Queue: 4 jobs
Job 1
Amino acid sequence: MKTEDAGSSVLETWTVEEVAEAFDRNEIVLIDVRTPQEYMFEHVEGALLMPMAFFRAEKLPGQSDKRIVFHCGSGVRSEKVARAAMAAGCDRIAHMEGGFGAWKAAKKPYIGTNMATGAPTPMG
């Protein structure tokens, strides 16, 4: 995990492995900030959807029970959202390096779309 101090806040950049392990142990809430269309086509099973276009940092819950880790397609949008959360007062926030593309490249499980039927299908 990489960390960056930004005043009174810390931005953490987690690897896919770190996210997958913490997610499996139910230690984090994984929030997907891609569009609803991207999420519907393929997503990490159990990740929550909070599209960047509708993101309101002040509405985030506290992190006393589970840490929040954002992800997007490549890591660019999730970093922007994480920085917005820091600006809204989150003192420690994280995002996943490389986004969903890195998740798939690491052969982690996800829900995709069966192109023949349109049905959600486990992948990876």
Job 2
Amino acid sequence: MPFLGLQRQLGIDLDSWLLRQSAAQPHGKAGACHAFEREWVECGHGLGQTRARRECQPEYEDFMECMHRTKLAARLKKILDQRDKMIKEGKYTPPDYQKSQEEPRP
């Protein structure tokens, strides 16, 4: 987010303050969604808010999916619902190690 090269002249980096994944991370490694956030910011840089919302929608959706995992959770729910449906119909029996039975305590 350069503003007439002011960041470089003053020797500060506002991007690390403004970007969620650019903040200091443990062990000096980049955040898990850093690449997606960077793509989204680079796409929208210089376009203006209205145009960036329209043109950078895929990058934004990728970033939000990486952060919140909503599509992954919905897919997992469908898979588990299908498994439960198949168990009710008798078409599938889970292996012994998947059955949620507690082990007897001594």
Job 3
Amino acid sequence: MPTDETVVETAAEAAQEFVFSRLRRSDVDDLDVTVTFEDGVLTVDVYVLAPDVDEDVETIADDAALTAQSAVDDLFSE
């Protein structure tokens, strides 16, 4: 059983990796990934500020949160 800290770190890393797989670091003015894991409930919020890109930044943020949740699911299935 992973620790709460491991769950939070896994989710945060997965979200950041996803964002930077879609956007160049130099294009991102601000990235905030907030992860909580309390009483077995995972909450992931991702905020990306990248005003000069043509991508749908909101969709990237949403997909990053989903990727983080999936990474935690994988962690528990190991």
Job 4
Amino acid sequence: MASDASTTAPAVPTDPADKSVGDLVRNLSEDLSRLVRDEIHLAQAEVGAKAKKAGIGIGAFGGAGVIALYGLGVLIAAAVLGLSAAVPAWLAALIIGVVLFVVAGVAALVGRKKLQQAAPPVPTRAIESTKADVAEIKESIKR
């Protein structure tokens, strides 16, 4: 038995001008919901990618810092030994220690300033895309 296409399901108009207000509101709700979900997924992906890059960078800096610390220890010992040829060993160690504390203080001040200037990892592309979507929705509502 052949089935007629017109008896199986009512035809849904494809032209928005032919759709009912209820259909348009339902479509708007579905599209808006999908858009919000997609924007959230985009923001999560963007922040995740930035966090991964930052983690790798921090790990590399940490490894470099440990190796540099060993090298600095050797240089400090050499400085104390070299200065002890001119002054008593205890005085050489004291002078080098004071110099190191001054250098550490300057480094701490520079680090604090850089941390204050650092921007939080914000999903800038997702925010811009969301703003564009909102503007587009507002423009289509005005029509």
